[in-house]
Amino acid sequence: MTDAAEAHHEFQARGPHSHVQRCASVRKIGRPIVEQLQEIFLGIAAKERPDDKIEVGFCAHDGTYSMDFAVQCIETKGNVAKTLSDYVITMVKEYQDDHRYKALGAGISKTAWNLSLDLPARMWAELDIPTLEFKRNVAERDRNKTPIVDVDEEADAMARKCVSMYGPQKQPLIQVRFLNEVDVDAAGHALLCTLEQYRETVRKPTWDATMYYTTRLKKRGIRMAFLNATPQGGGVALMRHAMVRLARLLDIEMKWYVPRPKNEVFRITKTNHNILQGVAGPEECLTDDQVNTIKTWLYSTARRDWLHKDGPLSKIEDGGAHIIFVDDPQMADIVPLAKEVEPGRPVLYRSHIQIRADLVDEQPDSPTAAVFDWLHSRVKEADMFIAHPVSEFVPKVVEAKKVAYLPATTDWLDGLNKELRFEDLQYYFENYNAHALASNQPQLDFPTRDYIVQIARFDPSKGIDTVIRSYGELRRRLYKDTTVSQTPQLCIAGHSSIDDPDASTIFDEMMELIDAEYPDLANDISVMRLGPIDQELNVLMSNAKICLQLSTREGFEVKVSEALHKGIPVITTRAGGIPLQVEDGKSGFLVDSGDYRMVAEYMYKLFTDEELYSTMSKYAASHVSDEVSTVGNMLSWLYLANTMAGEEGKKLEPNGRWVNDLARETAGVPYEEGEPRLPRRYKI
């Protein structure tokens, strides 16, 4: 308890002091230990008192019932918001550390949040606790009066409300609400970031340009709608969660919709994805029945949800969006439907994969050409074809004047990227090892041994077999005379996506490869499909010595920039848009796809040359472009909406320009010499 606090009731639960002492003794003699923290939820409430003090209530909840509480009063010392947030952060940190708890989430009363608006964001940034704000429900009999509720009672209610928002994966449930709109951050209850935090993630010109368009769009009341296939699991979904989160802070109307899930369709669309990238089997093709299945799936959701009043595809006068952005080849049929309803409304299509344009252009009878013919017959009506920034991704049949380039992005404030304090790093690392043990996979011996990581979906284009062969070459040839305990391990991990049925097949193939060709290294190769817990991937990336991304086909793969941002050198292939992110020899190394021997050579070089590693790490961390951040991404979409939507909107023909360049120039803050940005004229 701080000196400024007046206790009404202290927490009663005692910390496990004997357990802590035993763990410390074991660590002291050098024996490995896995310490599992008890997972809890918190409730926080506060109210001002007539004597200018704040009464604060805390509740600890084990997921079944309340287990502990405290009530204290604090002096405000003039700055109520900072005093309250400092006090709560200190109390929660001490309570967790003393009792060996890990809070999975916290509920905070609306009154407490109003007293300290930055408290939830600080809980997320400093203590890794998603904090959800709730109003207190008032019983029917009390609606005509203001009932008096003690802060301990309200804190208990907040904890219970928080628990109700979590699912079996110990994460807030994804909310898909009326009209199949994705209601991000637990339907807006989770307050993870502030606008000021986002401002600090980018350089001043990027922020100024973003605010330039924000002001104009708010004044004009422009409504934007994004439509893609799934709300969770892939890079598109990650970008949209972050975009809508930032849009709420900017107070602009941006909504995100997904169709109702259908596994039959996901098998078809994943095969189409593989065919377009040129990694499908020769027998795979798109049939007329499959084309009809995809269209029926999308039209059923559109008719039930999106074409009605206030739906995104309804007429603008009926509350429809002023501009529509369509992601994913799965959603192609939405483009002509949207144009049929409102012909003058801009509809922009974003192509987020590496399309084998060479097969489309040069082999018109190939399955790739057939799938793209189907895709293009739908999206040719779009006002713009936005591709990852590599010209070879765009077949010649696409009108050149409609082509624009825009990279994938990541969010520096989300669970994948934010900095974690040591206690949380340890918690997630031990969670990973516990999951590995339960899955009969090797555990990572970090920090005793270094490890190499590739984080990616289990997909045929991710080059996971090359990752394994590269590690085998490193260990068998370059470390052949080195004691095993002095060699690095290999970690291959990734989330699953609900529209990706290939993951299990690829996982099984990789395990068969290890068993058949590298049985002597099997105990040092940890291969894991993880649940949707971003911080586990964050910890694996943050503590790795080297990051690999050895894809054979790739649109962009922003995991590369995430690693560089952490100062982790990356060895990657010259596949798709990946080389745009890595400066060869400065922030990492580029190799040809499948060249596992060269990958091994570069890994060995980074492990054995400390000066090279240090120089490369520092350069990587300081040369990541704003273009791959959420704010940089928002800037591009706001520019497009401001330019093309509404009565003042006009036709825009980018003719192969980067959207970010157009946005910066129009806002009057073009790129200056020396400002980090992705290469503009890269060719595969």
TrEMBL record:
One of its GO terms (biological process) is glucose metabolic process. It comes from the Eukaryota. Signal peptide: none annotated. Residues 447-621 form the Glycosyl transferase family domain. One of its GO terms (molecular function) is glycosyltransferase activity. Keywords: Carbohydrate metabolism, Glucose metabolism, Glycosyltransferase, Transferase. The keyword Disulfide bond does not apply. Residues 227-394 form the Trehalose synthase N-terminal domain. Homodimer. Belongs to the glycosyltransferase group 1 family. Glycosyltransferase 4 subfamily. This is Glycosyltransferase family 4 protein. It comes from Aureobasidium subglaciale (strain EXF-2481) (Aureobasidium pullulans var. subglaciale).
